[in-house]
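in:
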């Protein structure tokens, strides 16, 4: 089985978001894999998320995550620096969204950090628990 790099999910995300036309602006933040792709080596500073997204006038950080797990999304897939950025953005009154792609079911879920912070002791969420956040991108 091929390693899950997340790049195919990011491509699907970009395609789906751009379907919103002029009501959206999507800016991709540079990460280390982008730098390595340019010269085969290198490191980029940690970014708060994969993207800055403005949709219908609302701006948010957007982090795309993909998982092959058949029944749940584990919060361990979120890097510590991403979690810290999400918490800080939320504390400042801003939005931070996790766009979760289940590679097993091909379903997508849009989870705001505010939801995850409501249950700080949870380490993972079943797809059933996340049904409220399922999109129609599948």
């Amino acid at each position: 089985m091929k390693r899950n790099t997340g790049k195919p999910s990011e491509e699907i995300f970009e395609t789906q978001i751009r379907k919103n036309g002029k009501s959206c602006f999507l800016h991709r933040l540079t990460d280390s894999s982008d730098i390595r792709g340019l010269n085969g080596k290198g490191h980029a500073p940690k970014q708060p998320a994969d993207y800055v997204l403005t949709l219908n006038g609302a701006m948010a950080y957007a982090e795309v995550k993909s998982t092959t797990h058949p029944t749940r999304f584990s919060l361990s897939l979120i890097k510590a620096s991403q979690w810290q950025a999400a918490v800080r953005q939320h504390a400042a009154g801003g939005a931070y969204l996790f766009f979760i792609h289940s590679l097993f079911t091909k379903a997508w879920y849009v989870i705001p950090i505010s939801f995850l912070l409501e249950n700080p002791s949870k380490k993972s969420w079943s797809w059933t628990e996340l049904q409220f956040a399922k999109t129609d991108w599948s």
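note: The chain has a mean pLDDT of 91.
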